[in-house]
Description:
The structure holds 2 protein chains of 2 kinds. Chain A is mainly α. Chain A is built from 4 helices and no strands. Chain A has helices at about 5-30, 35-55, 65-90, 95-120. Chain B is mainly α. Chain B has one domain (about 15-145). Classes of the chains: A mainly alpha, B mainly alpha.
Amino acid sequence: MPDERxxxxxxxxxxxxVHAFKRARVRFLRQPSAKRLHDVRTTARRLRCLHxxxxxxxAPFSLRRLRHVIDLTGxxxxxxxxxxxxxxxxxxxxxxxxxxxxxxxxxxxxxxxKRIARALEKLxxxxx
Amino acid sequence: xxxxxxxxxxxxxxxxxxxxxxxxxxxxxxxxxxxxRHGRSKDLxxxxxxxxxxxxxxxxxxxxxxxxxxxxxxxxxxQDALGDLHDRDxxxxxxxxxxxxxxxxxxxxxxxxxxxxRALWRDAxxxxxxxxxxxxxxxxxxxxxxxxxxxxxx
Lengths: 128, 154
């Protein structure tokens, strides 16, 4: 076990990260938006990285559901960003041909957003 | 690449723990950096993830070790450039053949993002550059400023 100062420092970091994630989750569930989705994704990833870095110094907690949330938020983010990137790069002569892909990306984003909300409702955050 | 485990079991104090984490995460980045030369999508994606892990760790340390702030900021820029590149790779994968003019534009944007990432990486190792504090803190990365990072001539 690492010394007490390290354990205390790690606990402080964990508390801060869990608090940030809980806050982002509540805000997203109250009113979903692209910005709030980004916050959920970022705070969840920070929490996972903290777990990886400080594995020896913090009480163990399961990352299974948190990983699921990270994967889902990644899917939603990818769909939104790909749609925007495609729109920006789209040649005017190919607008018609791109319609199907743009619609599919939008559909993927909306479906994933619903799944994220369900996953976040089920998720239990670690109790530092 | 899965995050390597950091051994903190016999670390002596917070500064030592921070140094051990930074060394492991910086070493992961340095191992993956040849991806900037060959430009393969999968390896560049792994490099982006390694940069993110290192950046998150450094951002946690900056209240105690402000000399790491510039490296964290440079890693964020590098992550953005690699993220732009990854988005274009994903888009190109799902694009139908009928969008060939658009695909050509997306490929050019990808090349721009790669050039941006290479420049950010090279410049990070300049004397008194953004990685100076990180190199001093970890003792890693010396020699990379000479273009040894696998990016020279890219």
